[in-house]
Every structure is written in C-alpha cells, then in structure tokens.
Amino acid sequence: MAKISGVDIRPGNNIEYEGGLWRAVKIQHTQPGKGGAYMQVELKNLIDGRKNNVRFRSAESVERIRLDTKDFQYLYAEGDMLVFMDNENYEQINLPAELLGDAADFLQDGMEVTLEMYDERPISVQLPDTIEATVVEADAVVKGQTASASYKPAILDNGVRVMVPPHIVSGTRIVVDVYAREYVKRAE
C-alpha cells in the first residue's frame, strides 16, 4: 500500500479511511480566501455502500489500496444470490445481488464480469459498460414532436425502462449504458 496526500485523491481511487475501504466517487478542489486549500471528496464504502463526504488537507495522508481483479462468468441467480464461475479454475462463487446494486438488472447468462478482490474477498463486481438488449415495448410517437429533443419510454427484455429516440420500435436491438441506464445507439 502507498500513502498519498489528501489533495492527490482522484475519482476511482480506493483508499483506507477510518478503518474502512472506500472509493473516491467525486472530488472538488477548494481554495478558500483564508486558510489552506483542501479537497472535498465524496467517498463510497466498498463493503456496505455507505457514502461519506470528507475534507482532506494537503498535510493529511491516506493509504491508497490496490484491489486485485479477476475475470468471472455470470451463470445464474439463486434467490437473492448470484452464481459466478472463475474463468481460470472453474470454481463457483455465490455473491449477494446487492453487491452489484442497480447494475444487476443488466446481468445476462454467460456475461463476462470482473470481480474486485481485497484479501481474497470479493468487494465489487464490474459489468461491461454497455450491453445489447431488445426493446419489448415502446410507446408510440406523439405527432408533432421534434426528433432531436424528444425521447420516449421503452421497456427492455430484462425489464429495465429506458428512454429511446422516436424511431426505435418494439423488437429493435439497442446498446444501453449499464451504469447510466441510457440508450447509446442502435445495435449493429
């Protein structure tokens, strides 16, 4: 582990703070008229998902931790547990669905995912940034809407509701951003 100054924290950094494992989500560098500069950091706990806003001054230092990553394949859901298989040794591991949060809606059988591990313990599951899905229900276009500004609601084959352009109809394959839950483009 490496110590870094509090003002050197960047979004995506994993740090040890007050005995917990945290990921920096957002940062804001502030230089008030009086006193020294500081970094306002929004942290998310890697274990339980709690959020915390912390001010770090340049004199403070924190431990930056490195998480090991390992490739797994999603197999199936078993109640509120998800079953993944290690791509190297084919061992199976059960993880709670809440570890993925809202991204769990986008899991597909056989999907390749990356598990972040700390001391051989799974901390988080990273899905691909985008996936392909089929629109199963799309509202009709309202006459007179301009194509540039208007999106309409649609439901995907995984039950997720996203906003799509007016030309997308039921049965269309589209690419969706998993974490923003947004339409990206029509699938090739």
Task: Tell me the count of domains.
Answer: 3
Give helix and strand order, one letter per element, not per position.
Answer: EEEEEEEEEEEEEEEE
CATH topology of the largest domain: SH3 type barrels
Q: Indicate the radius of gyration in whole angstroms.
A: 21 Å
What is the CA-CA span between the terminal residues?
Answer: 44 Å
What is the CATH domain class of the largest domain?
Mainly Beta
Counted beta strands: 16
Kindly report the average pLDDT value: 85
CATH level-two architecture of the largest domain: Roll
Report the β-strand fraction as a percent range: over 45%
Outline the structure in words.
The chain is mainly beta. The protein folds into three domains: 2-64, SH3 type barrels (Roll); 68-126, OB fold (Dihydrolipoamide Acetyltransferase, E2P); 130-186, OB fold (Dihydrolipoamide Acetyltransferase, E2P). Helix content is 0%, strand content 54%. The protein has no helices and 16 strands. A six-stranded antiparallel β-sheet has the order 1-6-2-3-4-5, with no helix packed on it. Strand 10 (112-118) and strand 11 form a beta hairpin. The mean pLDDT is 85.
